[in-house]
């Protein structure tokens, strides 16, 4: 079995396969070590917006999280430690970027082509698990003059730690989940920051804080306390999920909480108006920060709402003709979230290319299986992202489902699991019908493709998803040996 990616999804799937009796598991990772997005995103202030008690593997609880919401270094340390302790780190081949997957109809085997320090290598596997994630491919807009800018320019996910921002004029393009963390993180160093905002996010206070020593000691020593904490946080985040798919009391409370936060931190009426979203709460990602609004109110920080038109040698020009001078440009412009398996050429049964199958938007039965691609499973695949709660709960459900597939293969109950086209089509219709009435269908966001299809998000509660993946139904699959 081959797993692509050594972040939370890939490592979790690999450990689950091992525990399920699948001993031959190889994990291919393009970076130099494990960690996924938590290895790559090292910008100032990088942290999680899901409580640590839930943003961790259920089978590897950690009583020693130093904060309620952990910063990047602590999350990465946790991933590295668990990888070592479970022994799965020994199965990870790093510095190896998968470029192609090709299925052999006759042998029911995938050939995995990868480029590494020793050149091109191939691996063979009856089951391939792709865990490359939805937020791993940074996007930088194709603006005129990008190459003309005289100073350093980089994406937040590719932070240039060699660039000293002290005393520099910094232009930040984007106001998403990364920007609301790194802008406060660089505000004390930069001489001036210009934030270019296309649409204002809803930002609510983050109930963060240190986990004191006595609390951590109690979590270690009192049986069941960690489990109770995790369940409590899970319940709260499920209410957040419900608020984004239904009209609930919590949605109204969150809106009032946001408005109160904005009014208390932004005294300037003009700036306050500029920071008011023009779309429904939840349509785009709701963000958590105690420092974003306060940073934007500082004297050396400006918010520009005119569209960025071009880059020039000395800065950023907006469509109103104004040149905003800058020494450094930082792109906080997000990721290609709807471009699943980006950079990997996947060829399935009868030469079908996954890029063509997904041309109008990605889909997969239960977010895992695609018709015409036997023995290919996707972790954190189409329609499995969340507006609230922890994605790890979704990925653990997917991993357990993949283990059942692998066990069915090793037991000879199925040769190469290919989901039936009619089953996948029915599931996709259900997803799009449910999503069509959700808040995500009512504005433009990274949740949607250019055609308007919501291909990222799950339209229900995490508990529902876990329930639906808990029992493998082989009736959903075509036995490749008999077709």
Q: Which structural class do you get from the secondary structure elements?
A: alpha/beta
Number of strands: 21
- The Cα radius of gyration reads 23 Å
- What distance lies between the first and last C-alpha atoms, to the nearest angstrom? 23 Å
Q: Which word captures the global form?
A: globular
Low-confidence stretches: none
Task: For the largest sheet, list the strands in their spatial order.
Answer: 3-2-1-7-19
Question: Would you tell me the overall average pLDDT?
Answer: 93
Structure keywords:
five-stranded parallel beta sheet; alpha/beta; 21 strands; single chain; 30% helix; 483 residues; 13 helices
Outline the fold blueprint.
Layout: E1 2-4, H1 8-19, E2 26-28, H2 37-40, H3 72-86, E3 92-93, E4 97-104, E5 109-116, E6 119-125, E7 128-130, E8 153-155, E9 169-173, H4 179-186, E10 192-196, E11 203-204, H5 213-221, H6 225-245, H7 249-265, H8 269-274, E12 287-288, H9 292-296, E13 301-304, E14 308-312, E15 315-318, E16 323-325, E17 328-331, E18 345-347, H10 354-357, E19 376-378, H11 391-410, E20 417-419, H12 421-436, H13 462-469, E21 477-479
Parallel strand pairs: 1-2, 1-7, 2-3, 4-18, 7-19, 8-17, 9-10, 9-17, 10-13, 11-12
Antiparallel strand pairs: 4-5, 5-6, 14-15, 15-16, 20-21
Helix pairs in contact: 1-11, 11-13
